[in-house]
Amino acid sequence: MNQNSMAIIILCSHLCVGESVKPFEPAEWAKLADRLVNNGIQPYEILSFTDKDFESRLNCSAVEIHRFNRLIERSGSLAFEIERYANMGINIMTRADNFFPKPLKRKLAKNCPPLFYYIGRPELADMKFAGFVGSRNVKPDDGNFTVAAVAKINAKGLAVVSGGAKGIDAIASAASIENGSYCVEYIADSLINKIKHKNVINAVINNRLLILSVAKPDSGFTTGIAMMRNKYIYAQSDGTVVVKADYNKGGTWSGALSNLDKQWCVTFCWNNAEYQGNTELINRGAIPIDDTWDGDIYKYEVCKKESHEQLSLFNI
What we know:
45% of the residues lie in helices and 13% in strands. By secondary structure, it is of the alpha/beta class. It is elongated and about 65 Å long.
């Protein structure tokens, strides 16, 4: 782990959070990163700052200085916690690491989280992906369409990225691995619970699965994190397939609308008239696909709104 990466963990991780310890949330970290870049300061330098340094070099208030000091004071206990999770196979990557998912940094820029907890081989994120999203409540036809679509994109050399939830996500992930391909999952649930499943462990051991989460490994599902992870799926993929969306509600619907607006990747949608959400997404610009789709996600142009903001030397 490089020095900047450790500094980001100390400042942003929710591990070992005690009284008056308030880690920097992603939006706060983006603002702090700007201050660091503008003042020619790398994250690791903060760890040895005196109160006077914070005041003179970052123009920090007394409240801000206290916050920095409390975060830095937990460094020792945080190192033990990091080791404890590492013994479970759970590690941490930050934007200062070369193996942090590059499409997220490129497309999301300052909206990209400063760190992920993960299990699996991080280099899997360097592959080309098609995203698969949809409802947790599925019918046999939904599963059949998903499995067939995954086989088509796998045949073209693409892996699957999903949210790792029950329903469409799990079906797509399992199908890709069964086809001898790979899967990356951005989850909104507990990594510790995830690694209790034998099929997950086998896929990780066989270097077929990488699972990432912005949530602390022992935390449960939260709607807020679920909404956040949707953009990671779209940003990671070159094209995402919406299999089943509930009209005007739920994460699948809101995530697809965000992608149609931001254009992180091409949005495909199963042209199933039974689902009003699917029909409405197609009306709003999603590309309709059916059983005749050949799995080629590169036929269509997308007006990519990738950030052209300058990235600092520590990839913030």
